Amino acid sequence: MNRQQLEYAIREVGRWLKFDYFYVIGSAAVFASIPDAADAAVTGTRDVDVIPSPADTSKIGVLADQIDFVLGEG
What we know:
mainly alpha, 4 helices
């Protein structure tokens, strides 16, 4: 994954799920925080793991299911 693909994936999460705010975790988070990363261990990721951050924390499970259904594996 390159930086442009990562930014696209993040925009799509927000667009499809209408999230204004969410967390990117895992290797994609490291890649996101190092804009000029070139190391294959960092850029070799093929996925972007996200966690919703709703104001109502009781909705986290529902939102996680939506993420998986709309933008899940693959």
